[in-house]
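dumping this here so i dont lose it
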């Protein structure tokens, strides 16, 4: 049995997921403003713009003079421009509204088994925190989705100044959680940013993904979580 004191959690696609693809929610908001844009086109534009913005201004422009709010407003506007919308007044309204809406449970849902697993972990006495490549809205999102109370701290990459897989964000989490690396485990869905990065920091880690061959780098079966409900059985082995 692992002697763990602290569990840290990724959020997106580990505890919460988007209710619908970005292109669909952006297109619905555009329709509310009298604009017709194809969801598929918006989805493609968003992926292209998001990737370019992340490369040019990593971690929401931290250290480059941008706020995460401005970073996201630029992404939304550029996504619509690339999809053929050039009314600047409309773009500003759309960007502001969507930035607010992505703080809402209307756009996020709790993954199956997440609330129950978090509750059980707390009952067993684990200290828990969040380590996420997210912006300052995460606290509000977790609160509105009724998950915030499970965690002693929420550490975003924006607040930390470092994004996973940088080990310094895990070092900050260990200090916040009052644990040594060997006393902590991280749970996430991304092999590089979650599983491998946490292990490089000296922590235990578990990868949330359907078990099976041909799904990326080899991970020992005992470190794979087909669902979050498998976590406690893995810890107790």
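and the seq i came up w/
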């Amino acid at each position: 049995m692992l002697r763990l004191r602290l569990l840290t959690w990724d959020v997106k696609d580990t505890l919460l997921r988007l209710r619908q693809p970005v292109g669909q929610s952006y297109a619905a908001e555009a329709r509310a403003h009298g604009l017709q844009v194809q969801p598929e086109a918006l989805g493609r534009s968003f992926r292209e713009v998001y990737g370019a913005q992340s490369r040019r201004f990593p971690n929401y422009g931290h250290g480059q003079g941008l706020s995460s709010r401005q970073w996201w407003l630029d992404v939304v506007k550029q996504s619509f421009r690339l999809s053929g919308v050039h009314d600047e007044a409309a773009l500003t309204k759309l960007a502001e509204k969507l930035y607010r809406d992505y703080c809402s449970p209307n756009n996020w849902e709790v993954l199956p088994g997440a609330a129950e697993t978090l509750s059980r972990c707390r009952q067993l006495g684990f200290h828990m925190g969040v380590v996420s490549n997210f912006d300052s809205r995460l606290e509000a999102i977790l609160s509105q989705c009724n998950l915030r109370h499970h965690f002693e701290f929420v550490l975003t990459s924006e607040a930390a100044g470092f994004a996973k897989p940088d080990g310094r964000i895990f070092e900050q989490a260990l200090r916040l959680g009052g644990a040594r690396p060997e006393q902590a485990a991280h749970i996430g869905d991304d092999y590089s940013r979650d599983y491998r990065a946490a292990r490089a920091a000296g922590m235990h880690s578990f990868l949330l993904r359907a078990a099976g061959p041909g799904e990326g780098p080899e991970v020992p079966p005992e470190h794979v979580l087909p669902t979050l409900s498998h976590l406690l059985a893995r810890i107790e082995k």
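The first strand starts at residue 6 and ends at 9.
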